[in-house]
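Hey forum,

I'm writing up a methods section and want to include a predicted complex as supplementary material. The small molecule is pyridoxal-5'-phosphate. I've pasted the protein sequence and the SMILES. Can someone with a working setup run it? I'll credit the forum in the acknowledgements.
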Amino acid sequence: MSTMNTVGRPTAPTANDHDYKYPTLTGGRGLLQAEHLIFESNGWGKTGVDLPEPKTDGSDLGDLVRRDPIGLPGLSEPETMRHYVRLSQKNHAIDLAIYPLGSCTMKHNPRLNEKMARLPGFSDIHPLQPTSTVQGALELMDTLAHWLKTLTGMPAVALSPKAGAHGELCGLMAIRAAHEASGQHEQRRKVLVPTSAHGTNPATAAFVGYTVVEVSQTEDGRVDVADLASKLGDDVAAIMVTNPNTCGLFERDILEISRLTHAAGAYFYCDGANFNAIVGRVRPGDLGVDAMHINLHKTFSTPHGGGGPGSGPVVLSAALAPFAPAPWVVHDADGYRLIEREEDEAAQAFGRMCAFQGQMGMYTRALSYMMSHGSCSTTNG
Ligand SMILES: *Cc1c(COP(=O)(O)O)cnc(C)c1O
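Reply by user p_vandermeer:
Happy to help. Structure tokens for the complex are below, copy them as they are.
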């Protein structure tokens, strides 16, 4: 089979086809992206390392001693290095292009954030270290929490959820805990979700045990308020609305939507994945939102979707704040500490979202982004 080389000239297959399936003019492969599996590069019986002769003869293994070669690829050290460097060059990077991920409103991931996240005081710490040794990291979490609450106009935030979907789970669990506390959980079994919602919204509601009821949308792509009103009642636990919505439109009737929701005794969960479009202009707290996740990896930078982890802090209204999951950071004259257990002020917390404190690297990137682009030149101290 003939193939095309990088200058577009057809070339004949080489004798060594297993090695150079896509030859260049010179036979060098530095500019080619096509890469064999490392096991397909076998055949020379080379090795990149010299291991010392084993001191034992393996006789204690009896019949279990392997007699055949184990099929490791035969590559020299530079060949091995080049194989992995070529693979690494298949990665998409901010130096190559924008990151075109669907609904994600943040395409720019400044290098500065990466540099900050790699500072050893943030990157080389362990979640079980004594808090006296990680005061700076706790201060960073506290400052980030302060700005998330300030930007959303909400009194509380749970930092630990690890993605938007995890944040939705956190928000709905807080809502369920609030209905349980007021004795209404058994009666409020439905969650209303518009047709255009991101798939994670109905999935989360179902996962928490609710029945999902769809709300239709208007011809211009917004929530059909009349349909919503007709479905609200004392059997509804919450509505989940994305704003700006998935069609990229700001829900103009949002105040009416929250008024109707609260009048029915339900909570307003806002999917904040698109917060980047309104941050600094509109505060969800002023719109009557009770819980909203913020995809730090969408609104406050950080490569994601194969490029890095997510983080989905959830801001909560005064009604839901008591049920926020542990842990959270507090500070007093003795410095910063984590509230982790019922006996330390977390009596009503519905539980935890993850083993430790969440994604430290994401917190660092998000705060770096806020401090370099926003108005937060002073801390909350
Ligand atoms: C991205 C997104 C989510 C889910 O967030 P993840 O961080 O991917 O879990 C939820 N809703 C909307 C509208 C989104 O765009």
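Some notes you might quote in the supplement: Residues 103, 163-165, 198, 200, 242, 246, 271, 273, 295, 310, 312 surround pyridoxal-5'-phosphate (CB under 6 Å). The radius of gyration is 27 Å.
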